[in-house]
Specification:
The chain has helices spanning 11-22, 38-42, and strands at residues 2-6, 26-31, 46-49. By secondary structure, it is of the alpha/beta class. The protein has one domain (2-49). Mean pLDDT is 85; it is low at 57-63.
Length: 63
């Protein structure tokens, strides 16, 4: 299944994204330009960067 997700760089959003990828879903994430996306790239998540007011975005540590 193809799933669109926002908040994938946050703590809960990242965990949900990782679990969905483990279940072989295709994920497309909407992220802020300043967001750290290295972990999402490792999961092979398709990314779209969008600039919104107040967009800070930090990736949650997976460990």
């Amino acid at each position: 299944m193809r799933i669109f997700i926002t908040g994938a760089t946050g703590f809960i959003g990242y965990l949900v994204t990782r679990l969905l990828r483990e279940q072989q879903h295709d994920i497309h994430a909407l992220v802020c330009p300043a967001s750290e996306v290295a972990e999402l790239k490792k999961l092979r998540v398709e990314l779209t960067r969008i600039s919104l007011p107040g967009c800070a975005g930090t990736i949650a540590s997976s460990t």
